[in-house]
Amino acid sequence: MEWAQGMSTGHDSNHTLANLFLSMADLLKKHGENPYRIRAYQRAADTIANLESPVAELVQAGDLRTLPGIGKDLAAKIQEYVETGAVQAYEELKTPLPPAIQRWSALPGLSDPIVHDLYYRLGIRTLDDLETLARSHMLRTRPGVGVTADELLAAIQRLRDEPLRSD
Q1: Could you tell me if 64 and 70 are in contact, meaning their C-beta atoms sit under 8 angstroms apart?
Q2: Range(s) within the chain of domains with CATH label 1.10.150.110
């Protein structure tokens, strides 16, 4: 396995990754995410910060999952960080949503974390996309969405009728 050129793979990298996970936990908290998920990032940060060896060595040896509190999802993020020097999920969390998309949080059944998930994970970029998702009844399968398709479709129509203000 080749490491990204210029990527620090020593203890400094462990502390950088631990701080990145702490930042992710803080951002998840601001987005109102699941407290268990937030604690998972905090525990992972603590584990990584206290490692005896560089995390890159554990990635190379395939031993990440032996660390306490490191499951499949976090192991993948650690590997992504070691290989690229970044974690895409962190970049998405710290990037604010476009104003037109932020307005979706006012729709019934859609909180900030759900809208963030729809935009970044599912690639829902327009009200037409959101309407198509609502009509497919797939939106109800997303965790935390507790609204009927008809209620959401009516709210989408009301949102279309409102002018977008630039404050």
Answers
A1: yes
A2: 11-94
pLDDT tens column, 6-36? 344 455 788 899 999 999 999 888 877 889 9
Burial string for 122-134 (b: 16+ CB within 10 Å, else e) reads: eebeebeebbebb
Rg of the chain's alpha carbons, rounded to an integer?
19
Measured between alpha carbons, how far is 57 from 68 in angstroms, rounded to an integer?
16
Buried b (16+ CB within 10 A) or exposed e, 47-73: bbbebeebbbebbeeeebeebeebeee
| CATH code linked to domain 11-94 | 1.10.150.110
CATH 1.10.150 fits 99-161, yes or no: yes
Question: What does the alpha-carbon distance between residue 17 and residue 47 come to, in Å, rounded to a whole number?
Answer: 11
Q: Which two tokens stand for residue 18?
A: 């631990």
